[in-house]
Write a structure and sequence with these properties.
The chain is built from 8 helices and 10 strands. With 281 residues, it is an alpha+beta fold. It has 2 domains: 149 residues, 2-Layer Sandwich (Ribosomal Protein S5, domain 2); 116 residues, Alpha-Beta Plaits (2-Layer Sandwich), CATH 3.30.70.890. The strands form 2 sheets. Strands 1, 2, 3, 4, 5 and 6 form a 6-stranded mixed β-sheet that branches. It has a 4-stranded antiparallel β-sheet with strand order 8-9-7-10, covered by helices on one side. Strand 3, helix 1 and strand 4 form a beta-alpha-beta unit. It is globular, with a radius of gyration of 19 Å. The protein starts with a strand and ends in a 7-residue tail after the last strand.
Length: 281
């Protein structure tokens, strides 16, 4: 089964709460760049991953144990994970794997959990898992990632060019850097949307008024200050006609959005041309 990754089309981050987590507002888009999971019958649990992290450090390992604990059975099945999505890239590969594993395990065991129970379990496993459990490929995601508002809309850019700068970035580290940046500059969080604002934006997007959505990523300026390679990637994407250029998640991948297939020759970075999974109503 394919575990589709995502890009963040805009990311706004609130102040860190007492639980150490940051609330967000983002528009997430599932893309056709994916890992692959297979579950085969086996009396004991085995996890075989084509790339790190391995064993207990892999989120799928935790998913299997949490799922079977929830249904009151010992873990079983041979899980094979083929990794294609870049690690530490902000594409949500680990969370996509977790959500896909939950769906597959639930089917494998005869659907012992309903959708509400799956979502509750997903929230415990990672902030982006709720989005990946959602059947839609396009959604506004709020709070700590647990609130997902599916969008009945067509993403206006059919071609997405991902660029891997060769940097692996920890989400926790980037949020710490954002907090430090705000303290040092006296910058306030711009997470000031009310529930009414969110409903207005959702309705506007579903009517095709995409220009009302702010696609900028608050993390991007900090990354570009620290890693000059992003300026080079930005200029390259601009030179080949990208209409929007941004960072996904907290990095490291940068992307360009295009209305037509981009034309380019060999470049200095790993690239992946992909498309949105959900093509509209």
């Amino acid at each position: 089964m394919k575990a589709y990754s995502k890009i963040n089309f805009g990311l706004k981050v609130g102040k860190r709460d007492d639980d150490g987590l940051h609330p967000i507002i983002s528009l997430m888009v599932k893309i056709n760049f994916y890992d692959e999971l297979t579950i085969l019958p086996a009396s004991k649990f085995e996890l075989h991953s084509s790339a790190p992290p391995y064993g207990e450090d892999n989120l799928v390992y935790k998913v299997v144990h949490e799922f079977y604990h929830k249904i009151g059975k010992p873990p079983r099945g041979k899980v094979i994970l083929k990794k294609n999505v870049w690690i530490g890239s902000g594409l949500g590969g680990g969370s996509a794997d977790a959500a896909t594993a939950l769906k597959m395990l639930n089917k494998f065991e005869g659907y012992p959990l309903n959708n509400k129970e799956l979502l509750e379990l997903g929230r415990q496993l990672g902030s982006d898992v709720s989005f990946f459990l959602n059947s839609s490929g396009l959604a506004i995601v709020l709070d700590k990632g647990e609130t997902v508002l599916p969008l009945n809309a067509k993403f206006p850019f059919p071609y997405i060019l991902l660029v891997n700068p060769g940097i692996e970035i920890s989400t926790r580290t980037m949020y710490q850097m954002l907090d430090e940046f705000r303290i040092s500059t006296g910058t306030e969080s711009c997470l000031t949307f009310s529930d009414k604002d969110i409903i207005f934006l959702k309705d506007a997007i579903e009517k095709g008024d995409w220009h009302l959505w702010d696609w900028r990523n608050e993390i991007e300026p900090i990354l570009r200050m620290r890693y000059k390679v992003y300026d080079e990637i930005y200029e390259w994407l601009k030179s080949i006609g990208a209409e929007v250029i941004s960072i996904t998640g907290t990095g490291a991948a940068m992307y360009g959005l295009f209305k037509k297939p981009p034309q380019f020759s060999v470049c200095s970075w790993r690239v992946q041309l992909t498309m949105p999974v959900y093509t509209g109503v």
